[in-house]
Amino acid sequence: MLLGYAIGALLYDSVGHWLIELYGLGGKRRRLSRSYAEWGAVIILVKGLTPIPYKLVTITSGFAGYNIWLFVLCSIVARGGRFFIVAVLLNRYGDFIRAELEKRLGLWVGLGARVLVLGFYIAYRLI
């Protein structure tokens, strides 16, 4: 979790800043940081509950300069909540729900990917 955050933060300082300036997107980076400062907790909590790779959230949080302590707190709540939900489902429904999750994993990952793409599209339109 913190490694992804560090990658986002360090890549911006070394390579990211140069690339953003090269493409003339300096203003958009500031707008992303402002939007992430306002909605970062919601983004982290929602994405932490989905089956999409959480590394995308960790790297973006570091890149946007989101408060590391809020990031850690939201990550613990989101990821803990996700695994708690799976544990409750498995405890309550056992092998039946395990088979359903494994059977329809492609559907859930596809849905998560669509949500991710939609989220990036909305973020792009806001910036």
Describe the protein in words.
The protein is mainly α and 127 residues long. It is built from 6 helices and no strands. It has helices at 2-22, 26-49, 55-64, 68-93, 95-103, 105-126. The mean pLDDT is 79.
Report the mean per-residue pLDDT as an integer.
79
Number of helices: 6
Low-confidence stretches: none
Rounded to the nearest angstrom, the distance between the terminal CA atoms is 26 Å
Tell how many strands the DSSP assignment holds.
0
- Give the ordered list of helices and strands: HHHHHH
| DSSP helix fraction | over 70%
Radius of gyration: 17 Å
Looking at the structure, what is the overall shape?
Answer: elongated
Major sheet: none
The percent range for strand residues is under 5%
How would you classify the helix and strand content by structural class?
A: mainly alpha
Give structural attributes.
127 residues; mainly alpha; elongated
Question: Can you give me a brief rundown of this structure?
Answer:
By secondary structure, the chain is mostly helical.
What topology emerges from the helices and strands here?
Blueprint lengths: L1 H21 L3 H24 L5 H10 L3 H26 L1 H9 L1 H22 L1
